[in-house]
Design goal:
By secondary structure, the chain is of the alpha/beta class. Helices cover 71% and strands 8% of the residues. It has a 4-stranded mixed beta sheet with strand order 1-2-3-4, covered by helices on one side. Helix 4 packs across helix 9.
């Protein structure tokens, strides 16, 4: 069996003749000739009629040469290639990534404005996508509430355990420490005015209205939100979501709704636990540092803290849960390509979830202030 013909590159005026076996194993024979080709000509023809063998490596070499000459301002045509070689060359050309940076593009303040405009356009597209995803999720939830048999109860209970019961220890510890810190800092300030007894109102109102449910939502966004994005995003990378659609299953109904409903059900419970632990920590620190007995603490709590302070915090909980769950699942559905994208989207889900929870809490604060609650 004869050895394959070595590849060659020959320049003839405006025509570049490439022949022989232009395969990966022999590219080192013509690498120097390809690099020395003048790319400044305005019109060049690449003749491939003499090729005896051609593979992806050779196609990449020809495509790279054509790209270099085109970027230099020339017009390049390829002729003489067999249909199979021509198709291979086209596929390789389409697979070569193109740089989005324009070396002759805007610079300075114009470049900054251009970048800002692109960021605004991307943010607008993301906002529209998120609102659409939120609408789809809410629609599926309401339809499943009307037909509860279609709800995946096993998945719902599993996510309730993962996001709720398993999170109880960290939530309880967080609430206790927040109560201790509030009591200690409040005592330091109130002692200056001889008003140590008012530390009870400081702790109860702060924990029940704001800090208990807000910090609980932040922890859930970091703990459960990231887990949702990572798990669903991994399914997106492995094309399991596409397989669901092929089988006629709705990914939002199967993957998103159980997770969102689980958070809606468990976040108020977690917030209530955080409130109890916060009050306990505040009462303990008040007793140790200020001498406010547990009986006095409970009496002032009962007399001066209305039930609406607790209700305000509990009303926020389902809205926080919807925001956290929808953001986490929406980011998971934006995963593209590889596991690197999963990590990026998980980080984005946590950051955006926490930001939206704080922003929503500010909106609720203004709303309840206007109502006088």
């Amino acid at each position: 069996m004869s050895a394959p013909e070595l590849p060659y590159v020959r320049r003839d005026a405006q025509v570049i003749h490439i022949g022989g076996a232009l395969v990966t194993a022999a590219l080192d024979q013509v690498e120097k000739e390809f690099a020395e080709i003048d790319t400044s000509d305005t019109s060049v023809e690449i003749d491939l009629s003499a090729l005896t063998a051609f593979d992806t490596g050779g196609a990449w070499m020809v495509a790279t040469l054509k790209s270099r000459m085109t970027e230099a301002g020339g017009t390049v045509t390829v002729s003489g290639a067999a249909p199979a070689y021509e198709a291979l060359l086209e596929n390789v050309q389409n697979a070569i990534p193109t740089s989005e940076e324009d070396p002759d593009g805007p610079r300075g303040i114009i470049a900054m404005l251009d970048h800002f405009g692109r960021q605004v356009a991307a943010a607008q597209s993301a906002a529209i996508s998120f609102i659409g995803f939120l609408g789809e999720t809410l629609t599926r939830i309401f339809s499943l509430l009307l037909r509860p048999r279609r709800l995946r109860w096993a998945s719902l209970v599993t996510h309730m355990q993962d996001a709720g019961f398993n999170a109880m220890p960290i939530i309880a510890l967080m609430g206790f420490l927040i109560g201790v810190v509030l009591a200690f800092q409040g005592a330091t300030q109130l002692q200056r005015f001889g008003a140590e007894v008012f530390v009870v109102e400081l702790i109860s109102i702060s924990v029940l209205r704001e800090l208990g449910i807000l910090l609980t939502a932040i922890i859930v966004a970091g703990r459960s939100g990231s887990a949702f994005t990572a798990s669903v995003g991994s399914m997106k990378v492995q094309e399991e979501i596409d397989a669901m659609r092929t089988l006629g299953l709705d990914p939002i109904e199967v993957l998103v709704v159980p997770r969102v409903l689980a958070l809606v059900l468990v976040l108020p419970i977690l917030g209530f636990v955080a409130n109890l632990c916060g009050l306990f920590g505040g009462a303990l620190m008040s007793w140790i540092d200020l001498g406010v007995s547990p009986g006095m603490f409970l009496t002032r709590l009962y007399e001066n803290t209305g039930v609406w302070h607790l209700a305000v915090g509990m009303i926020k909980a389902p809205f926080f849960a919807v925001v956290i769950g929808v953001v986490a699942c929406w980011q998971a559905f934006q995963v593209r390509g590889s596991s690197t994208s999963v990590g990026q989207r998980t980080t984005a889900a946590v950051v955006q979830g926490i930001f939206l929870v704080i922003a929503l809490d500010a909106v609720f604060s203004i709303f309840f202030a206007q109502l006088g609650v």
